[in-house]
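Researcher: Next sequence.
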Amino acid sequence: MSPKNHDKFTIVAGTATLVYSLLAGLGVAVAVAMVWYILDGLERALIDRVTESTGRGVEALIKNDIEDRVTLLSGLAHRWGQPAELTRAEWEAAVRNIFETQPGYEAIGWVDTSLHVRWPLLHEVNETPVPDLDLRSRPRALAAAQAALDRDNVAFTDPLDSIHGGKGFGIYIPVYRPTPDGRKFDGLVGSVLLIDALLESVLPADLLAEHEVIISINGQTLFRTEPERPTTNQQWAKHRRFKLYDLNWQLEIVPKTEFLLDAYSRFSKTMLALLVILSSLAALTVYSLLTSRGRARQARDTARRLDQLLKNLPGMAYRCQDREHWPMVFVSDGCRALCGYNREELETQRVLWGTLIHPEDQEAVKQDVQLSAAEKRPFQLVYRIRHRDGGDRWVWEQGQRVPSDTATEMLEGFIMDITERVTSRRELAKEKAVLQTIVNGVPDALITADMNRKVTFGNPGVHQIFGYEDGELDGQPTSVLYANPQDFERQGKERFNKDAGKHYEVTEINWRRKNGETFTGETVGTVIRDGMGESIGFLALIRDITDRKLAEAALRERENHYRTVVETAGSVVLCVSTDFRILEFNPEAERIFGYSRQEALGAHVLELLLDKELWADTAAVAGEILSGKTLRGFELTCRTRDGGQRIVLFNATRLLDANDQPIGHISVGQDITELKLAQDKLVQSERLTAMGQMISSIAHESRNALQRIQAGVDMLKLDIRDGTEAAGDLAQIAKARSDLQTLLDGMRDFAAPVVLDLQTCNLRDVWQRSWRNVVQLGGGRQAELVEVIEGFDLQCRIDSFRIEQIFRNLIENAFDACADPVRITIACTDGKLENVSAVSISVRDNGPGLTPEQQDRIFEAFYTTKPKGTGLGMAIAMKTVKAHHGTLVAGNSETGGAEFVITLPRNLA
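Model: Next structure:
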């Protein structure tokens, strides 16, 4: 081959080699590009799924957190609505528990029936106090509160500005309190939930480490995880929309650049260029190695994020076999809180989920799951399960059938405990049914009308009271019901117009029935407003009070007649309740007992009028009256306001209500005090007269015998020598005669009528004479007289001789009772005897005092504790004091000695 041809061949071969090399390189590059395109598609799909999963997780967390808050606030509202009202301390403790367990609240308070916020409690991080708000001054809050009332359910406000900055929304839940007729509206539980604080507490940091979350409510963008950072990578953004309690939520989930760079295997393009230059095999090997490592790390990160998400979900995620009893292949950690069993027990299938479903719900659950699987759609179920502790729990489940590598079909889904939510909704439904029953069962006429005042609804009470058939009034103007056109016009101006405020006061209006008959009705009417505060109609409640008017007129007539009889009666009239409270106290009772009617009404009759020792017996008699016994001639000693006593003779019978049940008794009494005193005086006078006659006869007959005895003693003294035994016996006979003479003289003085020799005297002079006489005869005993009379007027009109006898008797008794030195104290004070000026003289000694028996019997005739006493001294003293129209009382002083108090009128006529 010639050199020229060799050169040509060499050139052609080199060119072919170059071409083949280029083609090979191009083929490798094309192969690598195809591999890169496929992997790039997989990476994009993975990023989309992670972003979509993050959006679903955020939505689930928000929904579950809001539902939990509503459930807890509903529980607070339910506690408030119980018959036993919450105290302020209990309310604050419950609210602080909500603050601690559910962060994000700005304030929680109770809204009363006038829509004023009461008992507001701020979260402790806020320092600015919540003012006393009137919701009517805040349209959004008022609209939500009205919506809660209208729907009888929880209501949220539109996003609003917080008083501490930022955005939030209000939550209002109506409170109803049970009453004997059903229940009544008792305000609302209201709260303000800060959106930023809510979402920061709900969304875990790990879940959002690789994504930016932007949240809008009702078209307002209110939250973003990184507000200072511009949003990029919009081509990767995912959007989710959902509605929660009338609030329209929109979620925008955007992957962060760091996540995209990490997830997208940024080294892959560089490695592809190197692999094209070096070799297709090395490039594929390196790319495969890098991709596998990146996917492994991504899988670990995704698994970590998914595990964190499942741990934070309020329930159990699961994967199970779609066969009998649904054996679990995987469950999340929420299974223990949900059903009481742990993951191992469920995943090893020692416990089958289907066996936990309530027997009454098993068939329905099975059919719903099979139908959803057949139609290739997700299923949502609500049913009961048996918890490990033996109780039943309500659960909500959402799931669907998923592809499986095995012959057995698989189900995946999520189950959460909704027991509290179901219970709350059932209670709300029950309350709504009760309210409907009340509306239909109330006997009053309940009418609603539109803004043109045309009837839109009438309960059965409307047909019964007005006489119209069901539906006959629908669309009719309410003016057909008014008896007077002027009332229709006036009510339109005052109550039934779109600008009228709430009116709950009762007014009386004349109405017309279908047959033309008119009647008087009590009426309550107000404006009905929707959740936005707009007037949408009117409500009126009408009660026919015709019969009540007639009954009230008849009752007034009877009451006037009764009042006339009671007030003009010359007898005491007392009406007493079953618990002994005075219900009626007429003028004669005022006169007798000294209390005014205002003072007596409502007072306890036993405490007001009787001494304590009479309470038990009197209460027993009252019990007999209440049982139906009519009491006649019951004599009772009553206490007056000034401390005096009046004897009243009562007749009594019980009082009955309209159902013939006893509500108390009425007693009619006559004051017989003076009559009793006259009777006692007459009996005493007759007794004393008889005793005086007898004693005078005895004294007269005995005097002759005593004189003969004395004469015989005197004669014997002449014959008997002193110092002999006979002389001693004779002295004893003489002593016995003298004692008998003294006894007869005392009996004569006691029985004889007291005739006073009155003169004005100085009392000190009287008791001083008595003191001197006793001391002179005392045999030199140590004795002291203490007088407490400084500045006191001692002039008094008395029988000085007889009063001196009383002082002498008291001083002698003190000498007999006291050991030396004897100390007697005489003190004087002003007093009253039946509104007459008097002087009270207290005589006290330092002896052992009087025993209870002595205090009770000391003024009895012939009662004595002395070996040689006659027992007539104190009886005569009492007789003398009574003759002066005074009093004599025996007792013991504070120091323990005996004390006698003599009270005498100063100017006895």
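Model: The longest strand covers residues 167-179. The longest helix spans residues 3-80.
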